[in-house]
Amino acid sequence: MPLSEYEQRMLQQMEQQLRSDDPRLANTLADRPRPNVRRLSLGILLFLVGLGGLIGGVATGYIWLGVLGFVAMLGGVLLAITGPRGGASRGGGRGGIRRPGGKVPPSGGFMQRQEDRWNRRNEERGR
User: Fold this and answer.
1) What is the pLDDT of residue 19?
2) What pLDDT score does 12 carry?
């Protein structure tokens, strides 16, 4: 059932108010990546195969089969809940994470990123 004009106007007003009140939350909700169905399906399948191996290993007494099944279950869960590996962005060609000022963060090492965060935090606090 489609929304009436009044409901559409109210929804647009609420969206605008959310964007003005808390832009960080609005961006987080708007840029939420869609789950990768293929990874999720393969992860569940690998988990089920691993569960079968674990139960089979316990039932037959083959410890190695149980351990292999457990490792497969763990791999399936990790495959299902993690994102793609590498530097591929899921934002549809956005070119990486963007800061509120529109700057792309530097691709330095861990310590450089921590230092940048520290500097930004101090700038936001006015120090």
Assistant:
1) 81
2) 87
3-state secondary structure of 126: coil
Token pair, residue 16, equals: 């605008």
Task: Answer whether 85's CB lies under 8 Å from 79's CB.
Answer: no
Report CA Rg, the chain.
23
Q: Taking the model in full, what pTM does it have? A: 0.46
> How many other CB atoms sit within 10 Å of the CB of residue 19?
13
What is the Cα–Cα distance from 53 to 46, expressed in whole angstroms?
10
Cα–Cα distance between 66 and 42 in angstroms, integer? Answer: 20
Contact 98, 92 (CB under 8 A): no
Q: Give pLDDT, residue 5.
A: 87
- How much is the pLDDT for 41? 92
Kindly report each contact of residues 38-42 with a partner whose C-beta sits within 8 Å and lies 24 or more positions away, as own/partner. 39/79, 39/80, 39/82, 39/84, 40/80, 42/76, 42/79, 42/80
Rounded mean pLDDT of the chain? 79
Amino acid at 48: L
